[in-house]
Amino acid sequence: MRPEPLSPEPLSPEPLSPEPLSPEPLSPEPLSPEPLSPEPPSPEQLRREPLNDGLLILEPLTVEHAEEMVEVLADPQLYAFTGGSAPTLAELRHRYARQVAGHSSDRTQWWLNWVIRLRLDPDRPAVGYLQATVAAEPLAAEPLAADRATAELAWVVGMPWQGRGIAARAAGLVADQLRPTRLIAHIHPDHRASEAIAHRLGMAPTDEVVDGERRWSTG
C-alpha cells in the first residue's frame, strides 16, 4: 500500500487493513443509508460534521483521537498486506496534526478523515478510521462536481471488530456522501476482503498497479 499522508505533498490514503474474507453483516439492513438530498455536502462540511447511519458514527478526525486510536492500530496483523508497523502515540499525534489541516498546502487536495464509532455500543468505542483524499480542480467550499473531482478511499478497522461489515458500511456511507465524485482505491491483489468492499462501492479493477497494489475505480 502506498504510504500514508504525512506531508504537504500530494497524499495517498492510509493503507487498507487485512479484514477477514467474508465479513458478516453488521445488521440485516442495507449497506447504504437513507437516500441523500439532491445537493451533496461540500468537502468543508464533510470534514467538520459527523456522519451517522444509525449503526455507525463517523467523527471528523482530531488530534485528540490519537489517544484512542493508538490502541486500535496496535495489532501487528493490521500490517500484513501493507508492511510497516504500528505507530507510537507521539507519531500518531504528529500524523493527525497534519491531516486535520483539511487540505494540501497547494490546495490541490481535500483531506477528509473520520474515526469510526459503534453508535449502539454503550461505550461508543473507536474501532477504526476511514480516509478520502479528494483531488478537485479548482478546490472550493462547494459541492463536488463529477467532472472535476476524484476521491481515493482507504479504511482500517481494528482486529477485535473485523468480520462485522464495519469497513464496508463506513465506506458506503462516505461514498454516498461523495457521489457523483469518481471513487478509486489501491488494493493488494491478495486482499480479497477489501476487493469485495471496492466491488460493493461500484469499483472495478483496472490494469494499473502502483507499488504492488491494483487500482480500482468507478470510472
Largest sheet: 8 strands, mixed
Cα separation of the termini: 21 Å
| pLDDT < 50 stretches | 5-25, 27-37
The first-level CATH class name of one domain: Alpha Beta
Mean pLDDT: 83
Strand order of the largest sheet: 1-2-3-4-5-6-8-7
CATH topology of one domain: Aminopeptidase
Question: What does the radius of gyration come to?
Answer: 16 Å
Overall geometry comes to globular
Helicity level, as a percent range?
A: 10-25%
**CATH level-two architecture of one domain:** 3-Layer(aba) Sandwich
The CATH superfamily of one domain is known as Gcn5-related N-acetyltransferase (GNAT)
Structural class: alpha+beta
Order of helices and strands: HEEHHEEEHEHEE
Strand content: 25-35%
Annotation, overall tally of beta strands: 8
Number of helices: 5
Description:
Helix content is 20%, strand content 25%. The chain is of the alpha+beta class and 219 residues long. The chain has a domain at 43-140 and 148-185: Aminopeptidase. Strands 1-2-3-4-5-6-8-7 form an eight-stranded mixed beta sheet, with helices on both faces.
Write the layout of secondary structure elements.
Elements: H1 43-46, E1 51-52, E2 56-60, H2 66-72, H3 89-99, E3 109-118, E4 126-136, E5 149-157, H4 166-178, E6 182-187, H5 192-200, E7 204-210, E8 213-217
Parallel strand pairs: 5-6
Antiparallel strand pairs: 1-2, 2-3, 3-4, 4-5, 6-8, 7-8
GO molecular function, one term: acyltransferase activity, transferring groups other than amino-acyl groups
Biased composition (Pro residues): 1-43
Protein name: Protein N-acetyltransferase, RimJ/RimL family
